[in-house]
Amino acid sequence: MSDAAISINQVSVVSGKDMKIDLYKAVGLHLPNCVWVALFALFLLQGCATGQAKKVEVKIASPGMVLTDEAREAFDAAMVLIKAEEYDKSIELLNKVAKAVPGNAISSINLALVYQKLGKLKLAEESLKQALSVEPENPVAHNEYALLYRKTGRFQEARGLYEKTLEQYPNFMMVHKNLGILCDLYMKDYICALKHYVIYSDAMQEDKTVKIWIADIQQRMKR
């Protein structure tokens, strides 16, 4: 199997009044009642057999971010640059937004993603630490930090962070899949891997690849 861990590729903000669906139901997160905006999170589910990437859109809630017109223009421009893979150019704009709303994790998460795309993992980690310093329970930041732990060989730390996230957000399916991959490919803990693959597969019936992984791991466990 290939490593198809799910990472957020882009996070952008829309006004809550523009939403036409139930955000909580869309991603399965049970979040406290307060002011919310929607985060559009684009991530890749890579096909194991074909190697082709399928783009999937989910919606995740985060504490509301109030932007000045200037900061919103900078944020929107940064999102355009990220989509165009002009990552270097987006950094200055994201830093500008981060200074405008220091109490919100969104810009820091985006900066971490940009730095990862550029291979600057230390800067990515610093940005994730900043995100979690202002929103300690942000599940998107936790997912990205766990992926960074895994990329840098800190498997126990990654597992601990995934498990901590699932304690608070047990229906956050991308974390179940990522934890399953970590346990399967990197830690050889097949009981853990099977548990989280099954949880993910039951909720995400359209993802046929994980069903193949489940059958494969069941065969390996019989040997």
Structural class: alpha+beta
**How many domains in all?**
1
Quick one: overall form? elongated
Beta-strand residue fraction: 5-15%
Sheet with the most strands: spatial strand order = 1-2-3
CATH architecture: Alpha Horseshoe
**Rg measurement, Å:** 17 Å
The number of helices is: 10
Tell me, rounded to a whole number, the average pLDDT: 76
CATH fold description: Serine Threonine Protein Phosphatase 5, Tetratricopeptide repeat
Helix content: 55-70%
Within CATH, the superfamily carries the name Tetratricopeptide repeat domain
- The string of secondary-structure elements, in order, is EHEEHHHHHHHHH
Name of the CATH class: Mainly Alpha
Please outline the major beta sheet.
3 strands, antiparallel
Uncertain regions spanning at least 5 consecutive residues = 8-63
Distance between the termini: 18 Å
What's the total count of β strands? 3
3D architecture notes:
The chain has 223 residues and is an alpha+beta fold. The protein has one domain: Serine Threonine Protein Phosphatase 5, Tetratricopeptide repeat, CATH 1.25.40.10. Helices cover 58% and strands 13% of the residues. It has 10 helices and 3 strands, in the order βαββααααααααα. The protein has a 3-stranded antiparallel beta sheet with strand order 1-2-3. The relative contact order is 0.12.
